[in-house]
Every structure is written in structure tokens, then in C-alpha cells.
Amino acid sequence: MKPAESQSDNRPKEKQTVPYLADTFYWYNPDFPMTTALRVTAATVGRWCRYYEAQIMAPDRCKSDESRREGVLPDDLHDRSAFIERLLRWVESCSVAFTFRLVMDDSPIKDGVQGDPKFARYEDDTMVLHLREEEFRELQESWRSAGLPDDLFAPEEDFFCIPWPGSSLWARLWRALGVLKCYSPKDAEHDGLAKGRT
């Protein structure tokens, strides 16, 4: 008998999380209600998280010793949502040009944010979610209820890159250097591109 193999074969399989990336078509649009979308996204994903870490990378109106907060989120979902709202207000009031990192997960967060946290908003504006499909559907419902599009994030596999397009000298130079132009699903739809088109 092979005990290790037998036991592992009988265990229920844990549902896999899918990496979802923020669709830049929305998030980089100056007319998009980014603050509202960030709040709705963080509050909804926060339901499935226990730990958080927030750091202001360029503190403006706060003391430098107040630029980082971390810990355990409240147990009560209403209290947790209110806590996340206060955390985002603190970030807004203290940071220069929204330069901050906010990470939430159901496991303790280590310095350097290793692994695949459920919610990660990094200082370079990159946002990544690692959710199960049913969690993502619930998040989409939260966006719709808030009057937001339900495709603010998309599976990572739906993003693609192509050699830098165009015929200008700069475009040819970028291509020669191997520079790529990457598209989110909505950017590709807007520009009339199909995934994988070169």
C-alpha cells in the first residue's frame, strides 16, 4: 500500500483560484470613477480575506511612521467593510498621487508580498486578484449594483502582447529592440484586435 498516494487521492480537491488583472481600458481612463471602483472591489474581496497590509509609498500629509499599517481584519463583515473604507480614506489623505500598496489575503501577509494574495494593488497601479470563479461572479454582481461595468478585471490569460505596431521610425526601433505592446481584453476590443493577432 502507498499511504501517501492513497490519502492524497481521496482528499477533496480545493477549488483553484484564477489570476484576474485590472483591465487598463477602464482603470487608466481619466473619466473612470477609479475611487468608487477601488472601494467596491476592495470591500467585496475583503469578505474573503483575513489579513491586510497597506503602505503609502510617497507619504505627503502623514508622518513617516504612519505610512504602513498591517494586521488582521475585523471578524464581522460589516465592521470589515467599514474598516477597509477607513483604510482607503487614510491612503487617499496621506499619499501623493495615489502611490500606495494594499494587499489582502486569507493567509498572513509576509513582507515583500509573496504568493498569490486575493487582492493586491501595487504602488505602480498594477492590480491583481486571485479568486475562485464563484467569488469573481459575486464581485461582478457588486460592480453591477454600484453602477460599474462588470468587466473591470479579466482573467490573466485573456491579456496578450504583440510586437510594437506601426510603421514610424520609432515603431520600427521598438520592434527591433523587442518591445511589445500589451492589450487588455477591452483595449483589444476597442482597437479592433483579436487575441493572438500580430
Explain how this protein is built.
It is a single chain. With 198 residues, this protein is α+β, with helices and mostly antiparallel strands. The protein has two domains: 141 residues, no CATH class; 33 residues, no CATH class. Helix content is 36%, strand content 21%. The protein contains seven helices and nine strands. The chain has a seven-stranded antiparallel sheet with strand order 3-2-4-5-6-1-7. α3 runs antiparallel to α4 and α3 packs across α5. It is globular, with a radius of gyration of 20 Å. The N and C termini lie far apart (53 Å). The N terminus is likely disordered.
Computed structural class: alpha+beta
Q: Which H/E pattern describes the elements?
A: HEHHEEHEEEHEEHEH
Kindly report the spatial arrangement of strands forming the biggest sheet: 3-2-4-5-6-1-7
Task: Tell me what portion of residues adopts beta-strand conformation.
Answer: 15-25%
Q: Could you tell me the mean pLDDT? A: 84
The rough form would be described as globular
Separation of the first and last Cα atoms: 53 Å
Total beta strand runs: 9
Major beta sheet summary: 7 strands, antiparallel
Radius of gyration: 20 Å
How many individual domains? 2
Low-confidence stretches: 1-13
Number of helices: 7
**Helical content band:** 25-40%
